[in-house]
Task: structure prediction
Amino acid sequence: MQVFTMWRECALTSFGEMLPHADNRVTLDPDHTDAYGVPIARISCVHRENELAMVRDQVDACCEMLDSAGFEQTGSSTQLSVPGLACHEVGTARMGADPKDSVLNSFCQSWDINNLFVMDGSCFVSQGVQNPTLTMMALVARSCDYLLEACRRGDLT
Result:
């Protein structure tokens, strides 16, 4: 979403959180592989009414801010960006307390593969507008402490 102005130039861009939906997912295509024989990723992602309403609200808020600041608006857009365009995508390996509805435990350890730890933004089901890197780093530090203790105890196979 962008709002354009003339003379005193200013462009506002906004970001919003896409709500998690089970059918927005990344899966491996068993019928198509890359040059190395690895199944290719298939991304399924649909913007729903919440995202459309959020963009309309963001445009209204940006226009109001620019009007208040004395800018003459020359245009605006409610065009939703292509999923994956933002640089901090998260998800695909949900963290949770139960293996029935999550992929990772609270230490980013796979429920199904004891010695697999996924220490990045994959464990988040969603994220807001702020950069998640510091939260990811904190989770990695916590998970590494757990991993080291598990190695010392001989719990990983």
Remarks:
- The beta strands are 2-6, 12-13, 25-33, 39-44, 72-77.
- The two ends are 49 Å apart (CA to CA).
- The longest strand covers residues 25-33.
